[in-house]
């Protein structure tokens, strides 16, 4: 029962989980803020690039399309009813995850944190909040139908756990500069 909820929550958030990791692998190139500062601090910093954002969004949408193609066998195998992703929902989840992460960098710079500095809480939830808001904005009927209160609760607990573990793994593998 709880495992079923975890499976559905994980599946539903997959298009939002992948973008940040894809951005880490694809990042580099021109920063979104073009080097601009506000006061003596950068607006976003060199860690938020056009390439990373585009690659992250595309990776999330691509994964959603793969999920749509295999939803029936995976649902049958797990014995749960998994949702499909209409294109607006997929784009909302993936792009929203990137926007949430970018918004967090803005807050980090405003609060005096350098690129790469940790902001516990914000680091683990920025992209979830962005993904949920954009998914709701881009496809509200899908959002309401898909995110019941139990699913939403599991997402909010599961996501920080997954975020911490995947980032430690990426750090150990040498693809990420900090373990958060
Ligand atoms: N990245 C990117 N574009 C994004 C998000 C991430 O290019 N929109 C890449 C960058 O190379 C970045 C890396 O992924 O350094 C890790 O992402 P993240 O931890 O979010 O960035 P930080 O470098 O830690 O910067 P910040 O302090 O602003 O979060
Ligand atoms: K981040
Ligand atoms: Mg970081």
Automatic annotation (TrEMBL):
Record-linked InterPro entries: CarS, CarS_archaea
Single GO MF annotation: CDP-2,3-bis-(O-geranylgeranyl)-sn-glycerol synthase activity
CC annotations in GO: plasma membrane
Catalytic activity: 2,3-bis-O-(geranylgeranyl)-sn-glycerol 1-phosphate + CTP + H(+) = CDP-2,3-bis-O-(geranylgeranyl)-sn-glycerol + diphosphate
Its EC number(s): 2.7.7.67
Annotated metabolic or biological route of this protein: Membrane lipid metabolism; glycerophospholipid metabolism
Membrane topology: Multi-pass membrane protein
Enzyme class: transferase
A biological process term (GO) from this entry: glycerophospholipid biosynthetic process
TM region(s), chain numbering: 50-71, 83-104, 125-144, 150-173
Subcellular location: Cell membrane
Similarity annotation: Belongs to the CDP-archaeol synthase family.
Protein name: CDP-archaeol synthase
Gene that encodes it: carS
